[in-house]
């Protein structure tokens, strides 16, 4: 079986690690000049030297928002070190050491941008068109199966605000944010209180005059922010120099800083692949992973608020159970039914399509379901426990949560040091 892996970020590496230990022929196409995806920091924003949009959204001072104890792969842990919350550089080093340990570089074609994926031979094969960026030539290859590992933090989602076009200040999405100095002495509205919005409000508060965190959470966030950070509801309207909030208050503002998340995007999948993005729900997929239209196409890494690297590993092992023929996929009708039921259940919990791939506090159910369904080694429950502990601490004590240090003592328990 010949498998294509698109992208050499942490998901693509997990794909290679497991495909390489089987009897598969594999090629991984990576459009940038190095492995690591999101964890590669680049000062440039906009387009790269080949005219392609810069992929990474990494910022210079980023420290992980999860402890290293939950950031490894099941069979390759992040090495021990005094801190639990690491720098972006340490994570990139870790990914490079994973890549070397499993001798994965031989499969990776750097500076190869996948431009098109389409079914061929009546849906039994996949044709992939790839641009060799250095030589500016097109390579066409045929594959039996495709793992799409292109990430989902590169296509900014920016809300439409009344009066946005009249605003005379600066507007920036977190995708293009690198260093806090650009906000020195400015009044900045941070839109969105997800992990990025919270982390960046804290980071820029060291330079900005005033940070206004605008969000639509029902209650104010209970954490203690630095003194120059205040919370406001959503924006009602923007004028030349001011922002009016839903509570009627008005503030003079220098910067609108959109920490409003990202859109799932698969620009290279042809329409015949049958994958749609509907209100940020990627569909039709079995278990957030397998194309229901043609199960030899899989999108690895879609769920968010997860133990990412371990989940990628689990998803890939799941896929290979089916692609190797050890397991048979359910009928198309049953897969569609399962997807529809999950959407229905989420609606009952108040979660719409936009949150279809959110796992969060219930991520353990997803992991167990994958493992039980495919008959593969599950992820240790301690990962979910520690992820939940860290997420709770993040919300309770944004300023200090990274001082905590943890140690996993067995598959079920961790201790705080
Ligand atoms: P990516 O890392 O985005 O890799 C995708 C790869 O695909 C890239 O190398 C890209 O160049 C390549 N690619 C894309 N399109 C093509 C194409 N057409 N052809 C060829 N190659 C292509 N997670 C955590 O667990 N802890 C954290 O603390 C954390 N912090 C984060 C902070 C920020 C600012 C961001 C943006 C994300 C953070 N994440 C964090 C989530 C992080 O994205 C995941 O942990 C993980 O790295 C995603 O891996 P990936 O391989 O799915 O995607």
TrEMBL record:
<dbReference type="InterPro" id="IPR020946">
    <property type="entry name" value="Flavin_mOase-like"/>
</dbReference>
<keyword id="KW-0560">Oxidoreductase</keyword>
<keyword id="KW-0521">NADP</keyword>
<dbReference type="GO" id="GO:0004499">
    <property type="term" value="F:N,N-dimethylaniline monooxygenase activity"/>
</dbReference>
<keyword id="KW-0285">Flavoprotein</keyword>
<dbReference type="GO" id="GO:0050661">
    <property type="term" value="F:NADP binding"/>
</dbReference>
<comment type="similarity">
    <text>Belongs to the FMO family.</text>
</comment>
<dbReference type="InterPro" id="IPR036188">
    <property type="entry name" value="FAD/NAD-bd_sf"/>
</dbReference>
<feature type="coiled-coil region">
    <location>
        <begin position="326"/>
        <end position="353"/>
    </location>
</feature>
<keyword id="KW-0274">FAD</keyword>
<dbReference type="GO" id="GO:0050660">
    <property type="term" value="F:flavin adenine dinucleotide binding"/>
</dbReference>
<protein>
    <recommendedName>
        <fullName>Flavin-containing monooxygenase</fullName>
        <ecNumber>1.-.-.-</ecNumber>
    </recommendedName>
</protein>
<keyword id="KW-0503">Monooxygenase</keyword>
<keyword id="KW-0175">Coiled coil</keyword>
<dbReference type="InterPro" id="IPR000960">
    <property type="entry name" value="Flavin_mOase"/>
</dbReference>
<dbReference type="Pfam" id="PF00743">
    <property type="entry name" value="FMO-like"/>
</dbReference>
<dbReference type="InterPro" id="IPR050346">
    <property type="entry name" value="FMO-like"/>
</dbReference>
């Amino acid at each position: 079986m010949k498998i294509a892996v698109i992208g050499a970020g942490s998901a693509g590496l997990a794909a290679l690690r497991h495909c390489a230990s089987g009897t598969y022929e594999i090629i991984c196409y990576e459009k940038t000049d190095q492995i690591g995806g999101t964890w590669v920091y680049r000062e440039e924003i906009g387009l790269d030297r080949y005219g392609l949009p810069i992929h990474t959204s990494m910022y210079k001072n980023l420290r992980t928002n999860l402890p290293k104890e939950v950031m490894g792969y099941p069979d390759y842990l992040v090495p021990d070190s005094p801190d639990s919350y690491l720098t972006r550089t340490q994570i990139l080093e870790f990914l490079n050491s994973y890549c070397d340990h499993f001798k994965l570089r031989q499969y990776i074609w750097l500076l190869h941008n996948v431009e098109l994926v389409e079914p061929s031979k009546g849906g039994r094969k996949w044709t992939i068109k790839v641009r060799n960026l250095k030589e500016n030539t097109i390579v066409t290859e045929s594959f039996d199966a495709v793992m799409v590992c292109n990430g989902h933090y590169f296509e900014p989602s920016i809300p439409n605000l009344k009066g946005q076009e009249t605003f005379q200040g600066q507007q920036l999405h977190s995708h293009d944010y690198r260093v806090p100095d650009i906000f020195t002495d400015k009044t900045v509205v941070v839109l969105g209180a997800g992990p990025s919005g919270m982390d960046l409000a804290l980071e820029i508060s060291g330079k900005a005059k005033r940070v206004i965190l605008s969000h639509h959470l029902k209650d104010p966030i209970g954490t203690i922010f630095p003194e120059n950070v205040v919370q406001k509801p959503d924006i009602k309207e923007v004028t030349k120099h001011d922002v009016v909030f839903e509570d009627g208050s008005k503030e003079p503002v220098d910067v609108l800083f959109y920490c409003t998340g990202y859109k799932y995007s698969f620009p290279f999948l042809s329409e015949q692949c049958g994958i749609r993005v509907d209100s940020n729900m990627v569909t039709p997929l079995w278990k957030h992973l397998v194309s229901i239209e043609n199960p030899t196409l899989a999108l690895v890494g879609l769920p968010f608020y997860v133990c990412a690297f371990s989940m990628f590993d689990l998803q890939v092992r799941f896929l290979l159970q089916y692609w190797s023929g050890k397991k048979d996929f359910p009928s198309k009708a049953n897969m569609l039914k399962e997807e529809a039921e999950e959407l229905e259940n989420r609606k009952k919990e108040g979660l719409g399509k936009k949150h279809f791939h959110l796992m969060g506090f219930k991520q353990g159910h997803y992991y167990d379901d994958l493992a039980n369904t495919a008959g593969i080694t599950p992820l240790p429950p301690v990962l979910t426990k520690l992820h939940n502990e860290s997420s709770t601490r993040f919300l309770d004590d944004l300023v200090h949560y990274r001082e905590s240090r943890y140690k996993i003592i067995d598959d079920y328990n961790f201790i705080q040091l």
